[in-house]
Amino acid sequence: MLGPVILAASRSDKMRRLISAAPVTKPVVDRFIPGETVDQVVPIIKDLTGKGLEVTMDVVGEDITTPEQSYAARDAYLELIERLKQLDLGTKAEMSIKLSMFGQALEGGHELALANVRPVVEAAAAIGTTVTLDAEDHTTLDSMFAIHEELRKDFPQTGCVIQAYLFRTEADARRLAESGSRVRLVKGAYKEPAEVAYQQKSETDKAYVRILKILMEGEGYPMIGSHDPRLISIAQELARTAGRKLDEYEFQMLYGIRSDEHLRLAAEGHRMRVYTAYGTDWYGYFMRRLAEKPANLLFFARSILTKG
Q: Are 96 and 144 in contact (CB under 8 A)?
């Protein structure tokens, strides 16, 4: 029941100011967001990839109100790509992008977001890597999928994210699997109405398994975005049943959560990619991490009680 409350707080300017000013916040946030600048995260990228892991990098920030801010978001990713070029990691370091950062919600936002994301995808391809378009709330998805389809005409390796708790997702998964797309499957982290999404965790988990089976049996490249041990085990069994080799799918988990499991899966030969966010506008991202998993909220509360 706490999840919806936390998600509501993620949209509150008052809560943003309160939490941002709390003296205990930074060390807790650092668990999930290891830096604010490219210079600060490059050592993290080197450390993770040096351990046999892969990364997908997210420059956090979603509250775009002007076209100029969307251009700044685009340029932040282009700066990241320049640094990744020097590391020569290829697909071991890809990027995740929220189209809201690229102006999707502004007037003429669909065209603006496409115009902003295309040079990032082009630059990523030039250094041998790619981009995955993150899913946001359900009202944005038709635009996201249309942009994804347009980008794949020239850059077929471009990925996208689908969310198991939405009723529409099984149909989206079939379409994407048939087209051979890279697809990250997550449970979903936005507060969605009962008209469009499952409200119970058990229903979402069942949907996750159904959708993952579609992806494993399809022509695309499944990316399992979950920290749930049961779903990870099911994913491995579905991959074996579908005859997939270890390099024909991958696991993805968030930086700072179940780090030992990251290393365990990599040691078993699995592709294990760590979703690593950085940037100054971390509040919304941080609050969704708390909403997704009660243990994250308990970790935050313990830190406040022991350090406050």
A: no
Identity of the amino acid at 70? S
Phi-psi region of 224 (alpha: psi -120 to 50; beta: other; left: phi over 0): beta
- Distance CA(147)–CA(81), nearest Å, equals 21
Find the DSSP H helices in the chain: 2-9, 13-21, 25-32, 38-50, 67-87, 109-126, 141-152, 169-179, 201-217, 229-242, 259-267, 283-292, 294-307
- pTM score of the predicted model: 0.87
Contact between 165 and 192 under an 8 Å Cβ cutoff? The reply is yes
The residue assigned the tokens 């990027």 is: 95
What is the DSSP code string of 252-291? EEETTSSHHHHHHHHHTT--EEEEEEESS--HHHHHHHHH
The alpha carbon dihedral of 156, 158, 164, 169 has a sign of: negative
* Other Cβ atoms within 10 Å of 91 Cβ, number: 14
What per-residue confidence (pLDDT) applies to 256?
Answer: 87
What is the residue whose two structure tokens read 């979603």?
62
For residue 305, what pLDDT is reported? 46
Q: CB neighbours of 204 closer than 8 A, spacing ≥ 6?
A: 164, 165, 187, 188, 198
CA angle 138–141–146, rounded 5-degree value? 165
Please give the DSSP secondary-structure letter assigned to residue 221: E
Q: Which residues are catalytic?
A: 134, 184
Looking at the DSSP bridge assignments, the partners of residue 182 are: 159, 221
What residues does 183 pair with on adjacent strands? 160, 222
pLDDT tens, residue by residue, 68-83:
999 999 999 999 999 9
